[in-house]
Amino acid sequence: MGERPGGPDDVVAQLFDGAYRRLVVQLHGVCGDLTEAEEVVQEAFVRAVARGRRFAELENPEAWLRTVAVNQARSRHRRRRRGEVLHLVRERQADRPGDRSGASDAHVTLVAALRQLPAAQREAIALHHLADLPVTEVARTLGVPVGTVKARLSRGRTALAALIGDEAPVDAARATPTVRATRREDA
To answer: Domain locations in the chain?
Structure first.
């Protein structure tokens, strides 16, 4: 009882092949944990399969997947905050040396710094800089006004600069440290 070629399952499979890795990298910045990022993206794909033809007919299915994954990450975060024991286990795991993602040292440093930001700022920065989404798409994904996203980005970049150090600010789009030739204010 499989789908015909070109059916909803094919759309999901093609999108999985083309977007899974990109979505995991984007959500890694939001979650601060690679395993959790993989899990929320997988959950988004499971929900896409469940939607069937309705998913295949979406105008921007990758944006839908990203929104579902961000919402899933938020839900998990809220549940984790309620359970102190789970939170302590997560902290111990995050403090262990070694990152199995294969990410560069700069990316690991960036994600560690992002983890220290408030969730709203972390989400905005990860989606705008790591996922390279325009501010309007970040606002739509998070369900907040554009001005709110701009404020979160500004505050988050300021906090990141303090966490990482002003001498080597992070170019989040490439997740590598860069040296600023002249000091300027990022808006």
So the answer is: 1-98, 103-187
Biggest distance spanned by C-alpha atoms of the chain? 62
Question: pTM of the full predicted structure?
Answer: 0.55
Q: Could you tell me if 129 and 54 are in contact, meaning their C-beta atoms sit under 8 angstroms apart?
A: no
For the stretch 28-58, pLDDT in tens is: 988 889 999 999 999 999 999 999 899 989 9
Q: Does domain 103-187 have CATH number 3.20.20.140?
A: no
Residues near 69 by beta carbon (within 8 Å), at least 6 away in sequence? 23, 27, 40, 41, 43, 44
- Report the distance separating Cα 145 and Cα 14, nearest Å: 32
Task: List pLDDT tens digits, range 54-76.
Answer: 998 999 999 999 999 999 998 88
The C-alpha atoms of residue 134 and residue 127 are separated, in whole angstroms, by 9
Sign of CA dihedral 163, 166, 171, 177: negative
Q: State the sign of the Cα–Cα–Cα–Cα dihedral 116, 117, 123, 124.
A: negative
177: β partners: 170
Reported as a single tens digit per residue, the pLDDT across 81-107 is: 655 444 454 455 555 555 455 567 777
